Amino acid sequence: MSLHRLFQLSSLLRSAVSLTLRRNIGISAVVFNKAKDLDPIQKLFLDKIRDYSSKSQTSGGVVDAGPEFQKNMSEEVAKLQRLYGGGDLNKFPDFKFSEAKFDEVAK
């Protein structure tokens, strides 16, 4: 009986130690990855995203958009305005709902 009890306790102790080690290794891996330099591919990717972000902020829109893009964009906007009755396509529409009036039903 005591041998069986000993195996149960060792099993519990082993699972607790295993869980603790997995948690500590997981946390230390995150800290270690933040501390070391980025992978060269990740660094290149982040540099390109930051570069595009700064270019789009300075241009105020799409980066490297030429006159052909602007022409196509204006044609598409005109087409949408014809299809949907004009208005400002950059503004969210205002919805106004009124209460519906129903006739009373006689019993």
Shape: flat
**Which structural class best describes the helix and strand composition?**
mainly alpha
Gap from first CA to last CA: 80 Å
Rounded to an integer in angstroms, the radius of gyration calculated over CA atoms is 32 Å
Task: Please give the share of residues in helix.
Answer: 55-70%
- In what range is the share of β-strand residues? under 5%
- Helical stretch tally: 3
Whole-number mean pLDDT:
78
Beta strands, count: 0
The description of the largest β-sheet is: none
The residue ranges in which pLDDT falls below 50 over 5 or more consecutive positions are none
- Along the chain, the helix and strand elements come as HHH
In short:
It is found in: Mitochondrion; Mitochondrion inner membrane. The chain has 107 residues and is mainly alpha-helical.
What do these coordinates show?
The chain is an all-alpha fold and 107 residues long. It has a domain at 8-58. It is 67% helix and 0% strand. It contains three helices and no strands. The longest helix is centred in the first third of the chain and has 34 residues, at 2-35. The protein is flat and about 85 Å long. 0% of the residues are buried. The model has no long low-confidence stretch (mean pLDDT 78).
